[in-house]
Specification:
The complex is a heterodimer. Chain A is of the alpha/beta class. Chain A has seven helices and 15 strands. The radius of gyration of chain A is 23 Å and the shape is globular. The mean pLDDT of chain A is 88. By secondary structure, chain B is of the alpha/beta class. In chain B, helix 3 packs across helix 4. The chains are: A alpha/beta, B alpha/beta. At the A-B interface, helix 3, helix 4, strand 9, strand 10 and strand 11 of A face helix 4, strand 5, strand 7, strand 8 and strand 11 of B.
Chain lengths: 277, 332
């Protein structure tokens, strides 16, 4: 049986961004959360593997207690077990610290894994760094942005499209991949499935001490970067307003922007000189 | 190098001449170098790389470190990491800048982890703080927010930057640089990831994520028939149709067309937005559209405020007129 691990993250719904003005950080305790979309693609890839052969899927996340919700959602989608890592000591971790903590939990809870899957980036911090850094922590062969997975025996064959190259790569288990958004469209979670998942008891909670991580451990393995402040990005657009009957505004728009539209669509839409219509 | 501080730029030459991120980073590194009295050094790893050595010199590098060996002819994270790690440990640069190409995004985090240092991703601005630290300005939340990040203690300070963020310095082939050709390290690890096949291909599988034209519709389309016409427009433009959550809930569009935080993150060259108010769940997925044309009766709608061109009118009327006008104009 294949042992799969999927790393997921709860990200705040952007509708509600309660910022701690003083610290310039997000008060995740106040934000409504959801599963990071890219992580869902990774989970979908794992679920499709499980459909083709015997497999066990562990989903693992690090976050506040509320992050348990994304583990429940993952169970509802078809995962078998959830691991929630949470501790004040880990608050505000950058990718360097996060990948360290995830690695410790994996070594402790599921050391006999074959394949780790993660999303290709998160919608909140968007660094796309945790997957590759986790591969380093666990000293695994890895490939990012994979779009297709094939498994033969202990060999993993993946396909990806990177920097205008179509690549096919092979590696032996255990390995790590980050899954691109192009493929593996995540399945629906049914309401009944969700309800069932909230009754399940196969979620393990891990604190820093249960992982043998202390304050001084985080001194060495904790965050290397520091966020000084967070601010709203200023719009740099012209923001031109056109008003009037449809025929007039459409013509005005096309008159001023026909070059832009032509180049975007790769077709010429310029009015011919002798065309007065 | 003695005590001379050094800012390194990773020579990412895959797809050069189109990919000019390395030249753009060398230019930025020159700015930063003046502020902290450092030299700019480009690192070139690969096989038959003289062309790039010449280009990086002409575009502003003071020093080139080149490791040229047949074994390095294919881009491989495993081998390139080992070579780069070795160079950094030996020479201790202050800053390393890496282009956020697909390779760079996989390579940089692993390098940072090996070197036990911090990394910020996709910086849109780089500066030097009063204390002499690299100030890394990076986007978050679909580009709606920016964060100022520093790496206070660990070295090197590392950042990735997307292509097109900075401007390259015009080339000057009279310029000289100190070119050091270095031998391949003797303890190069075996490649655990085997490259079975690769082919250069400008075309990838078509998805909404890489579509250059997107037509999006929201609640303001009013009904299913109006929404259907978006497909007609998209077809004329050679683009795809996206939808907001209300339009998906109304059954006008499939869930796979959902654009936004919980759906697709699009980055078209041009986005036409019809009858969309611009709730942040939706706009979080369109922040990277290069040019936005929004049509809405309500000039106060958030989508109108983030548009390059905001057309205050009935979305259905404008859509019909636009389709009619385009049919007259489009010549293949």
């Amino acid at each position: 049986m294949l042992n799969l691990i999927v790393c997921v993250k709860q990200v705040p719904m952007v509708t509600e961004l309660p910022w701690d003005e003083k610290r310039g950080t997000l008060r995740r305790d106040l934000a409504a959360g959801m599963m990071n979309p890219a992580c869902k693609h990774a989970l979908e890839a794992a679920l499709q593997i499980k459909e083709s052969r015997p497999a066990h899927i562990t989903v693992i996340t690090m976050g506040p207690p509320a992050a348990e919700e994304v583990l429940r959602e993952a169970l509802a989608m078809g995962a078998d077990r959830g691991i929630l890592i949470g501790d004040k000591l880990f608050a505000g971790s950058d990718t360097y610290a996060t990948s360290f903590v995830l690695a410790q939990a994996i070594k402790k809870q599921c050391p006999d894994y074959d394949l780790i899957l993660s999303g290709c980036y998160t919608s909140d911090s968007e660094t796309a760094q945790v997957g590759p850094q986790l591969a380093e922590e666990l000293d695994l062969p890895a490939a990012a942005y994979i779009e297709k997975i094939d498994i033969t025996g202990r060999t993993l064959r993946v396909r990806r499209f990177v920097d205008n190259f179509r690549e096919t790569l092979e590696m032996e288990f255990p390995a790590l991949v980050t899954v691109a958004m192009e493929n593996y469209q995540p399945r629906y979670t049914t309401l009944a499935g969700l309800e069932r998942a909230f009754k399940e008891e196969n979620i393990v909670s891990l604190s820093a001490s249960s992982l043998g991580i202390s304050f001084s451990t985080m001194d060495t393995h904790g965050s290397c970067t520091k966020v000084r402040k967070v601010f709203l990005r200023k719009a740099q657009k012209e923001n031109i307003f056109l008003k009037g009957p449809a025929a007039i505004v459409v013509n005005e728009f096309l008159k001023n922007h026909e070059d832009k539209v032509s180049s975007a669509i790769g077709k010429d839409i310029k009015k011919e000189e002798n065309d007065n219509g | 190098m003695g005590n001379q501080k050094s800012i390194w730029v990773f020579g990412d030459y895959r797809n050069y001449f189109q990919n000019r991120v390395t030249l753009q980073l060398i230019s930025k590194a020159c700015d930063l170098a003046r502020r902290i009295d450092a030299e700019v050094c480009a690192v070139v790893i690969g096989h038959v790389v003289d062309e790039y050595i010449m280009e990086y010199t002409a575009h502003g590098a003071d020093r080139i470190l080149a490791v040229d060996h047949e074994i390095l002819k294919n881009y491989s994270a495993d081998t390139y990491l080992a070579v780069m790690e070795n160079l950094v440990r030996e020479r201790k640069p202050e800053i390393i800048l890496i282009g956020a190409t697909d390779f760079g995004r996989e390579f940089a985090p692993r390098l940072a982890k090996r070197l036990k240092t911090g990394l910020s991703a996709d910086c849109v601005g780089l500066d030097i703080t009063d204390e002499g630290l690299l100030l890394q300005i990076a986007p978050s939340f679909g580009g709606n927010m920016l964060a100022e990040i520093v790496t206070p203690e660990r070295r090197p300070q590392m950042a990735t930057v997307r292509p097109g963020t900075f401007k390259e310095i015009p080339h000057n082939y009279e310029r000289g640089a100190l070119v050091e050709r270095l031998p391949l390290i003797t303890n190069l690890p075996g490649q655990r990831v085997r490259l079975v096949e690769y082919e250069k291909s400008a075309e990838r599988q078509h998805t909404m994520e890489n579509s250059s034209v997107i037509v999006c519709g929201g609640r303001g389309m009013g009904n299913r028939n109006n929404f259907k016409k978006l497909h007609e427009l998209a077809k004329l433009l050679g683009g795809d149709v996206g939808a907001t959550r209300p339009a998906v809930y109304a059954g006008w569009a499939d869930h796979s067309a959902l654009v936004g935080q919980a759906g697709r993150h699009i980055k078209p060259k041009i986005l036409f937005s019809f009858g969309i108010s611009g709730a942040i769940q939706h706009t979080a997925g369109v922040g990277e559209a290069k040019f936005i044309v929004a049509v809405n009766k309500n000039p106060q709608a958030a989508m109108m405020k983030m548009a390059d061109v905001a057309i205050v009118a009935d979305a259905g009327d404008v859509l019909n007129t636009f389709i009619k006008e385009l049919k007259k104009r489009i010549r293949e």
